[in-house]
Amino acid sequence: MQYDVLREIGNIGAGNATTALSQMINAKIDMKVPNVELLEFKELSDIVGGAENLVVGILFTLEGQIDGMMMFMMDVDASRHLVNLLLGNTDENTSSEFTEMELSALNEIGNIIAGAYLSSLATLTNIVITSSVPYMAIDMAGAILSVPAIEFGKIGDKALLIETEFGDEIREVNGYFILIPTINSYGKILSSLGL
């Protein structure tokens, strides 16, 4: 039952994030039903294409009534596609090198998507959640995922992974939300939902 509730939070959060992304790039974005799993840290890099897969990771620390971290990850190709859509790049630039402006746009995309997700979580649970300024990195998935694993590995080894596929008429991309609340915060989320 708790797992079903976490899955529903994932569905609503991902839906709101897709709507926010649609409005941001001023284009219709469709989303498939997200896949929601509670996984151990060591399993996460396999889900996002392997430890050596080059990804964009945007990390937020969470404070308020919930402590922990949230990360939004996409592979570099998916990130490039979203940046091209947002900036109206018609030549469909495929370079894995981003300009300053593109990095800023990418950071903003991550900020909007994660903000929409956190906002729906806060609304559903009636819990105050504030997030830090986003930290963005482009690196191998294993390196990026080592940050929350080191930080939170001492208090728990599980993360809530919400894998969602969204896209426009040109292509679909996978995005990964990884929510890593402290053990205490998991309890607060579940009890706020009456579980």
Automatic annotation (TrEMBL):
<dbReference type="InterPro" id="IPR007597">
    <property type="entry name" value="CheC"/>
</dbReference>
<dbReference type="GO" id="GO:0016787">
    <property type="term" value="F:hydrolase activity"/>
</dbReference>
<keyword id="KW-0378">Hydrolase</keyword>
<dbReference type="InterPro" id="IPR028976">
    <property type="entry name" value="CheC-like_sf"/>
</dbReference>
<keyword id="KW-0145">Chemotaxis</keyword>
<dbReference type="GO" id="GO:0006935">
    <property type="term" value="P:chemotaxis"/>
</dbReference>
<dbReference type="Pfam" id="PF04509">
    <property type="entry name" value="CheC"/>
</dbReference>
<feature type="domain" description="CheC-like protein">
    <location>
        <begin position="1"/>
        <end position="37"/>
    </location>
</feature>
<dbReference type="InterPro" id="IPR050992">
    <property type="entry name" value="CheZ_family_phosphatases"/>
</dbReference>
<feature type="domain" description="CheC-like protein">
    <location>
        <begin position="101"/>
        <end position="134"/>
    </location>
</feature>
<protein>
    <submittedName>
        <fullName>Chemotaxis protein CheC</fullName>
    </submittedName>
</protein>
